[in-house]
Amino acid sequence: MEADKHEESVYIEALKILTPREIEVLELIGKGYTCKHVAEKLNLSVYTVQTYVKVIKRKLSVKGYRGLVLWYHKNWEG
After folding, report:
1. Best CATH choice for the domain 2-76 from the list 3.40.50.150, 3.40.50.1000, 1.10.10.10, 3.30.1050.10
2. 26 near 32, Cβ under 8 Å?
3. Are 56 and 19 in contact (CB under 8 A)?
4. What residue stretches are annotated with the HTH luxR-type domain (predicted)?
5. CA 10, CA 60: separation in Å to the nearest integer?
6. Please, is 6 exposed, middle or buried when counting C-beta atoms within 10 Å of its C-beta (0-12, 13-18, 19+)?
7. Residue-wise pLDDT tens for the chain (78 aa)?
Protein backbone atom coordinates (compact mmCIF):
# COMPACT_ATOMS: atom_id res chain seq x y z
CA MET A 1 0.00 0.00 0.00
CA GLU A 2 2.91 2.35 0.77
CA ALA A 3 4.33 1.72 -2.72
CA ASP A 4 0.97 2.65 -4.24
CA LYS A 5 1.03 5.98 -2.39
CA HIS A 6 4.56 6.66 -3.62
CA GLU A 7 3.66 5.85 -7.24
CA GLU A 8 0.55 8.01 -6.98
CA SER A 9 2.55 10.93 -5.60
CA VAL A 10 5.12 10.56 -8.41
CA TYR A 11 2.26 10.66 -10.92
CA ILE A 12 0.69 13.73 -9.31
CA GLU A 13 4.04 15.50 -9.14
CA ALA A 14 4.61 14.78 -12.84
CA LEU A 15 1.21 16.28 -13.66
CA LYS A 16 2.29 19.45 -11.85
CA ILE A 17 5.63 19.87 -13.63
CA LEU A 18 4.80 18.76 -17.18
CA THR A 19 2.97 20.92 -19.67
CA PRO A 20 -0.08 19.48 -21.45
CA ARG A 21 1.99 19.01 -24.64
CA GLU A 22 4.77 17.26 -22.70
CA ILE A 23 2.15 14.92 -21.25
CA GLU A 24 0.91 14.13 -24.77
CA VAL A 25 4.45 13.35 -25.91
CA LEU A 26 5.16 11.25 -22.80
CA GLU A 27 2.02 9.19 -23.30
CA LEU A 28 2.82 8.47 -26.93
CA ILE A 29 6.45 7.63 -26.19
CA GLY A 30 5.28 5.38 -23.35
CA LYS A 31 2.94 3.59 -25.74
CA GLY A 32 5.84 2.78 -28.04
CA TYR A 33 5.70 5.56 -30.60
CA THR A 34 9.01 6.70 -32.07
CA CYS A 35 9.88 10.39 -32.18
CA LYS A 36 9.06 10.33 -35.88
CA HIS A 37 5.61 8.85 -35.25
CA VAL A 38 4.92 11.28 -32.40
CA ALA A 39 5.88 14.14 -34.71
CA GLU A 40 3.51 12.91 -37.40
CA LYS A 41 0.64 12.35 -34.96
CA LEU A 42 1.01 15.77 -33.29
CA ASN A 43 1.96 17.63 -36.47
CA LEU A 44 5.37 18.66 -35.12
CA SER A 45 8.89 18.35 -36.44
CA VAL A 46 11.00 15.42 -35.25
CA TYR A 47 13.47 17.95 -33.81
CA THR A 48 10.68 19.51 -31.71
CA VAL A 49 9.65 16.10 -30.37
CA GLN A 50 13.28 15.29 -29.54
CA THR A 51 13.47 18.56 -27.63
CA TYR A 52 10.29 17.69 -25.73
CA VAL A 53 11.78 14.29 -24.86
CA LYS A 54 14.96 15.94 -23.51
CA VAL A 55 12.94 18.36 -21.39
CA ILE A 56 10.65 15.61 -20.06
CA LYS A 57 13.63 13.42 -19.14
CA ARG A 58 15.23 16.34 -17.31
CA LYS A 59 12.04 17.23 -15.44
CA LEU A 60 11.45 13.60 -14.40
CA SER A 61 15.14 12.93 -13.67
CA VAL A 62 15.21 10.06 -16.14
CA LYS A 63 18.20 8.95 -18.18
CA GLY A 64 17.80 7.71 -21.71
CA TYR A 65 14.86 7.10 -23.99
CA ARG A 66 14.36 3.58 -22.64
CA GLY A 67 14.42 4.98 -19.11
CA LEU A 68 11.58 7.30 -20.05
CA VAL A 69 9.52 4.40 -21.41
CA LEU A 70 10.17 2.41 -18.23
CA TRP A 71 9.25 5.41 -16.08
CA TYR A 72 5.97 5.72 -17.97
CA HIS A 73 5.06 2.08 -17.44
CA LYS A 74 5.98 2.17 -13.76
CA ASN A 75 4.44 5.49 -12.79
CA TRP A 76 1.92 6.57 -15.38
CA GLU A 77 0.17 3.53 -16.71
CA GLY A 78 -0.15 2.07 -13.23
Report:
1. 1.10.10.10
2. no
3. no
4. 11-76
5. 9
6. exposed
7. 555 555 567 888 888 999 999 999 999 999 999 999 999 999 999 999 999 999 999 999 999 999 999 999 998 875
